[in-house]
């Protein structure tokens, strides 16, 4: 017990109570750092906390380096912003995520922040280089909102893709069994899902294009210009949270309505539908040709495939990306469901 107490006193072993709460206010963090500098800190009962996990500081530092390395592999800028959910998914457990974020925040390598729109969104800004992370700006909040939107859109797209593929297979199966009325209804579902899928992909591409241009502007040392132009373009072009949620709600309602159709097909007695056999045969001929090939995947750009960082500067940066192109892209970002 003596050597454990000595290691705890020297800071080599940490208790959960020793960790900084990353969600605490800035004043608390400043006072905590001042307390450490002048030697004032709480003394926790080590023996009474042995039933809890003891944290080796060296191992914690290694895991922090691992997380930064993972983030650097998917971002080409000197800093990155991720949602709290994405940050936690990189870690092995919620407790580890808390410990890593706590250490990064205390070292000045990360900042926790949140925004309150219709939903409460939590995010983390992390420095991927040796320098400390900068303060949270208004553009950071807008970027977090856009990143959260891309994650929700991707989730919706995954659901649509699964139901789209399922409807195609059910249509072909019903057609082969001779139940052409049911098969035709599944074909109609396929068409509706295809339309929703196309809208979702188009919207996702436009949002990620803006995020990519902002990242390019930052990586070419145009951070201040990116903040000014990005924030101004978002406001001038009415990129509002209401429009984002309207689009997401439309997609959710579309998926839900198609599920109701599936339930009705499974439980209700189908009534005769006046459909020409030639039209049905033509539809299924096309469907069979499509199913004979590979299922097309949604081709969407992802910032995760970006080049790695080398001291905050990408290997290849499109230096021709100017504030004008950023503003133009923001202008083209229409968040209304079309």
TrEMBL record:
Which residue ranges have biased composition labelled Polar residues?
Answer: 320-338
List this protein's GO terms for biological process. late endosome to vacuole transport via multivesicular body sorting pathway; vesicle budding from membrane
GO cellular component, as recorded: cytoplasmic side of plasma membrane; ESCRT III complex; multivesicular body
Q: Region Disordered: start and end of each range?
A: 288-338
Entry's Pfam families? Snf7
Protein name as annotated: Uncharacterized protein LOC120264867 isoform X3
- UniProt source species: Dioscorea cayennensis subsp. rotundata (White Guinea yam)
């Amino acid at each position: 017990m003596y050597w454990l107490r000595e290691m705890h006193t020297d800071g080599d072993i940490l208790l959960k109570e020793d960790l900084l709460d990353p969600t605490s206010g800035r004043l608390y963090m400043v006072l905590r750092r001042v307390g450490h500098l002048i030697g004032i800190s709480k003394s926790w009962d080590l023996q009474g906390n042995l039933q809890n996990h003891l944290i080796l500081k060296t191992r914690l530092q290694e895991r922090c380096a691992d997380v930064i390395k993972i983030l650097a592999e998917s971002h080409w800028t000197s800093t990155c912003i991720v949602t709290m959910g994405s940050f936690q998914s990189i870690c092995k457990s919620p407790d580890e995520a808390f410990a890593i974020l706590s250490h990064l925040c205390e070292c000045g390598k990360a900042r926790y922040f949140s925004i309150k729109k219709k939903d409460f969104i939590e995010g983390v800004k992390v420095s991927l280089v040796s320098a400390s992370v900068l303060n949270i700006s208004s553009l950071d909040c807008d970027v977090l909102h856009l990143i959260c939107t891309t994650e929700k859109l991707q989730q919706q797209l995954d659901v649509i893709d699964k139901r789209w593929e399922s409807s195609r297979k059910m249509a072909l199966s019903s057609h082969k069994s001779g139940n052409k009325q049911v098969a035709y209804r599944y074909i109609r579902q396929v068409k509706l899902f295809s339309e929703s899928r196309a809208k979702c992909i188009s919207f996702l591409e436009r949002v990620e294009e803006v995020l990519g241009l902002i990242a390019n502007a930052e990586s070419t040392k145009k951070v201040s210009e990116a903040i000014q132009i990005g924030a101004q373009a978002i406001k001038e072009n009415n990129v509002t949270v209401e429009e984002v949620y309207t689009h997401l709600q439309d997609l959710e309602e579309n998926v839900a309505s198609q599920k109701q159709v599936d339930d009705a097909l499974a439980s209700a007695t189908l009534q005769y539908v006046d459909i020409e056999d030639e039209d049905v045969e033509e539809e299924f001929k096309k469907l069979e040709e499509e199913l004979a090939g590979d299922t097309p995947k949604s081709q969407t750009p992802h910032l995760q495939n970006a080049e790695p960082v080398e001291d905050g500067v990408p290997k290849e940066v499109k230096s021709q990306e100017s504030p004008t192109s950023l503003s133009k892209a923001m202008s083209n970002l229409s968040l209304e469901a079309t």
